Amino acid sequence: MTETTTRKPIVGAPPATPSVSHMAPQMAPHTSPCSPHPAHVLVVTLGTAGDVFPFIAVGRALRQRGHRVTLLAAQHFEAAVLQAGLDFHALFSKDETDAMLSNPLLWHHIKGFSAAWLAQSAALQRLPDLVAALPAEAPCVLLVHPGAAPAAALARARRPGLRIVTAYLAPSNLRTCHDPLTMGYTPVPRWMPMWLRAALWRLAEATTVDPVVMPTLNRARGALGLAPLSRFWDHMMDTADASVALFPAWYGPTQPDWPRPFAHAGFQLYDPQAEAPLPEALQAFLAAGDAPIVFTPGTGYQHGTAYFAAALSAVKALGRRAIFLTPHRDQVPAQLPDSVLWQSFLPLRALLPHAAALVYHGGIGTLAEALRAGVPQLLVPCAHDQFDNAQRIHALGAGQILHMRSLRADTLRAALAGLLASGETRARCGELAARLAGEPSAAVVCELVEEQVRQSA
């Protein structure tokens, strides 16, 4: 539903970020049949690399079809977005993103969502301000991360008729009462009736999400003359004119309580260094022995000291080689044996085919690359979508789970020993890699966006 308003200032709102930093050379413009003006697609995403890179992939596909595309994300991703040939606008400064990532609560299994929301709530003013400043006569569509859907709704209030497509990166971005249902560390039993599952969701939202999120959101809505809301998740899922999953149906089938219309586009994989050769030091390391185990807690995780200490002890006990992948060298033990190599960043598309196994946090971007490579996975979830992703990989037969709170040298060694010994798991990983190779392209998303362009004209 479209809400129209008058604009009032938001008291205490953070300053607006600068205008679009850089403009990419434009291709032949795509125009709506009802408008002579080129369509402008604003792609809005939050989070870290696993949240941003799939939207870059979709943005590239939209631009190849002749659309003007501006991607809004954290300043950290400016270079990657420009390299992809897209316009870029910084939605958050580097300092804001660094402050969010350094907050230990971001990785808490209960408080993580609220910590992320509070750190990124400036989008509630910045996105509507940007949309309001665009030429009124040019068709415009928002393609948004679900966390940005409330800001998109505010933008639509300031620009009536604005069309919104929400792109969901992982199944747990969508609330459902259907299996598999995981709440943090706890999988909900399959025998639990639907009414009780719904009650559990309401209780969880009422105690952990709504008290933190709704005051901020309702202040922004009130400044636009909009009525207050009581439930965040309902609003987030009801905002879009169309919804699309950036994961395949075999990984997360459409559930009866998901929004409609709904489509699956498959994993959208993008790596800014995919074509770059592996560093010479890494090539020499790979050639010097057996396939290593790759360990990464994710690019945004800044609290991995215990993780890497346990990893070093485990691979020593197993007599295995390893690669520790993190931009934060101070989290890795200072002294590493020749059998362990630290790297700050590597393109997973190039690295993972050389790996014996991958030990990681369960983020959806890394998960998709692991499935493409056909490498056995040990997931160590601690927050956000990671728990649900871990359950799905386990159910698919592609890996095992070791929760972060249970991670010790001995538990990690035992989990890895079992994973590496499983020929069944490796065979299943190969089957899923072959299946992933036949997934649909970004055309599904592009067609949804283009339909909204036509609707907006």
Automatic annotation (TrEMBL):
InterPro entries according to UniProt: EryCIII-like_C, Glycosyltransferase_28, GlycoTrans_28_N, UDP_glucos_trans
Pfam families for this protein: EryCIII-like_C, Glyco_transf_28
Keywords (A to Z) from UniProt: Transferase
Location of the region described as Disordered in the Swiss-Prot/TrEMBL record: 1-32
Positions of the Erythromycin biosynthesis protein CIII-like C-terminal domain: 333-449
GO terms of biological process kind: carbohydrate metabolic process; vancomycin biosynthetic process
A GO molecular-function descriptor: UDP-glycosyltransferase activity
Glycosyltransferase family 28 N-terminal domain mapped to chain residues: 41-132
Protein's recorded name: Rhamnosyltransferase subunit B
Organism whose genome encodes this protein: Rugamonas rubra
